Amino acid sequence: MTYNFFAGPAILPKPVLEKAAQAVKSFEDLDLSILEISHRSPQFVAVMDKAEANVRSLLNVPEDYAVLFLTGGASSQFYFTAMNLLGENETAGYIDTGTWSNKAIKEAKLFGNIKVLASSKDKNYSYIPKDFDIPSGLKYIHLTSNNTISGTQYQEVPDYGVPLVCDMSSDIFSKPIDIKKFDLIYAGAQKNLGPAGVTLVIVKKDVLGKIERDIPTMLDYRTHIAKGSMFNTPPAYPIYVSMLTMEWLLENGGVNAMQKRNEEKAALIYGEIDRNPCFKGSVHADDRSRMNVTFLPTNEAFVEPFLAMAKEARCVGLAGHRSVGGFRASTYNSMNIEGVQKLVDVMQAFAKKHN
Amino acid sequence: MTYNFFAGPAILPKPVLEKAAQAVKSFEDLDLSILEISHRSPQFVAVMDKAEANVRSLLNVPEDYAVLFLTGGASSQFYFTAMNLLGENETAGYIDTGTWSNKAIKEAKLFGNIKVLASSKDKNYSYIPKDFDIPSGLKYIHLTSNNTISGTQYQEVPDYGVPLVCDMSSDIFSKPIDIKKFDLIYAGAQKNLGPAGVTLVIVKKDVLGKIERDIPTMLDYRTHIAKGSMFNTPPAYPIYVSMLTMEWLLENGGVNAMQKRNEEKAALIYGEIDRNPCFKGSVHADDRSRMNVTFLPTNEAFVEPFLAMAKEARCVGLAGHRSVGGFRASTYNSMNIEGVQKLVDVMQAFAKKHN
C-alpha cells in the first residue's frame, strides 16, 4: 500500500478505481468500452444524469442553480467567470490568498474593474484576511476557499453581503456548504471529485445574460446549461469516474461524514505537528487547511532525511511547494485515517532518531 | 464481438483498451492508478513527451510546428483559432462543407472578417466545392477535411496559395498529410486518436503573436507551447490513452498502413453500396469519405428492417444523421476489415431477402 500525499491529481477510492478499470474493458452489458460509446447513447446519458444528481444530492443544490461539467480546469474559469458575470464598467472584489487567487485576478482584469479587497501576501499567504472594508457596488466577491500551496482554508463561508464567486477546486465535497451564498462555484475535478479533465461549475441561473458582451458559444455558460453539458462531446471518462466518486461519497455518509473524517485527520496530523519537536506549522492556526497540511522542519537539515524516511514507509508526495518549503501532506477525502496515522508514525520515529 | 459504427466517440484498438484498463488499476511500478498520480511526476511527464513524439513521428511534424494537447474539443477551436490568428481588420476565407464548417464560421465572425468562399449547401452538402475564386489578402483559409454528417472528405489537401487552418477531427491519422501546407490543424481526439476529453493542435509557431488582442492566458496558444501543454493540470488519462493509440498506430505501420487499410475498407463497402439494389450512395462519388460512409435505402421502408438485421449481427451505430437520413457506417482507423466485411455480409443478406 502506497500513501499518496500529492496535492493533485489526488487519490481516488479503491472501489471507484476497480469499477473505473472494468468500464474501460467493457461497460455495463454493452461489450464495448466506456471510452468508445457514443455520448448520446442512453447508457452515457444516464451517467451524465447521475453525475448531476449526485452533485445536487451531496451539496443540496437548489433548483435555480445549474450544475455543469466543463473542461479547461479552474485556470479556464478564472477568465470564464469574469467574461460571463462582469460588465466592462462593473467592479468585482477579489481576495488575494495566494497563487491561484492571483491568477484569477489577472484574468478577470481583462473584462472589468477588479478591486483587490485584501491580501495576505505580506506574510507569504500564511493566513486568511478577515478584517477589511467592503466597498459598495461590487458585482461579486471572488475567493479561493482552500489554498493548496500555502495550506490555508476558509473555515466558514464569509458573509460580506455580496454574492460570492468561489474557486473551490481543492475543498469541494470535503464538508457541507450553503450554496445560496454563492453566485458561482467552480472546481477542477482532480482533488476531491475525480481524475483530471473535467471541471465542475455550479451557477445561479438568473445571474447569467446580464451583461453586454459577444461571447463565443463554448464560453457562454448558457450554452452548456441549455444542452446539459453536452453541447459538444463531453470529457466522458473523467465525468464517469467523478460520478463514481460521488456515488462512493454518498454511500459513505456524504459531506457530513467527510467533514467528520477530515476533522479527525486534521486533528491527528496538526496535533503531531504541534507536539513534535522536529516540526512546526507554517500557517496561522485558525486558518489551517483540512486538505493541504503544510509544515516546516525546526531544522533545515531535517528535510531530506524526513522525506527519505517517509518514502521508506511508502508515504509519497510530501515535499512542500517551493514557495513555502518544508512539507505538505494533502489529505483529501479519499485519504483514509490509516494513511495519516502512518505519516504521524513516521514523524514520531523521526523525532526519536533526530531529536 | 460487437462492431461499433458510431460516428464518435469511436472504437479503440483492443490492445490499447487492455493497457488503458490496467493503468487505471496500477500504473507501471507505482502501485498507484494513472488517475491519481501527479502530472508533474516523471512517469506522467514521460507520457506527455511520448504523446508529442508519437504525433511528430506519425505525421512528420517539422520542428517549427508545436504539438499541443488541449481541452474543449474542436468546438472550442472554432473560436480559439480565429482569436489567435485573425486581427480585427483582417479577413479569412472559410469553405462551408456542412454543420461543423458552419459552426467554425459562426465563431470566427466574432474576431475578424469572414468570407465564405464556397459552400455545398445547395446540394445538402453532398460534395466538396472545388471551383471558386480565391480573393487576395486572406490571412488563412479554413476547411473541414472530413465531414462526419454528410460523409464527404477532401481526398487531397487543396492548394489555394494561402495557408490552411483545418478541422481534422475525423480523419487525422487516417492517411499521410503534408503538414507544411497548414498554419494550424486541430482535432478532437474521439475519432482516430483516443477517448473524448483531449484536443490535438498542431500549429506553426511563427504565425502566433502577430495580432493585437488581449487574450486570456489559457486561450493563448503560446501559453501552452511555453509549458508543453502543462500550464495547468492536463486531461491526463485521455492523453495517456491517445498516446497508447498512437503507439498502436506506429506498431501497425503508421499512417501509410492506415491509408491502405482505410482504402480497402472503403472499396469493400462502397463497392457493395454501388452493387446492391437495396442501397445507394448519398454523396458525389469523388468526394466519398473514407471515415464516414453514408448511404441511403432505395426504398424508405428498408430503413428499420436493415438496422434491425444489422443489430442482430452485432453491427451497431448505423443509423444515419437526421439531416441526411438512411445509414452511416463510420470506419475509423480502429475498425478492422472484418467489421466492414460483416456489414457487407448483412447488406447482401438483406438484398437476398428484400429484393
Give the gist of this structure:
Two copies of one chain form a homodimer. Chain A has 355 residues and is an alpha/beta fold. Chain A has helices at 14-25, 42-59, 73-85, 99-108, 221-226, 236-251, 254-275, 303-312, 337-354, and strands spanning 3-4, 65-70, 91-96, 113-119, 138-144, 146-147, 152-153, 164-167, 182-188, 199-204, 279-281, 292-297, 315-316, 327-330.
Question: Could you characterize what this model shows?
Answer:
The structure is a homodimer of 355-residue chains. The first copy, chain A, is α/β, with parallel strands linked by helices and 355 residues long. Helices cover 35% and strands 18% of the residues of chain A. Chain A contains nine helices and 14 strands. The first copy, chain A, has a seven-stranded mixed sheet with strand order 2-10-9-8-5-3-4, with helices on both faces. A three-stranded antiparallel sheet of chain A has the order 11-12-14, covered by helices on one side. In chain A, β3, α4 (99-108) and β4 form a beta-alpha-beta unit. In chain A, α1 (14-25) runs antiparallel to α6, α2 packs across α6 (236-251) and α3 (73-85) runs parallel beside α4 (99-108). The radius of gyration of chain A is 21 Å and the shape is globular. The relative contact order of chain A is 0.17. The interface between A and B is large, with 63 and 63 residues.
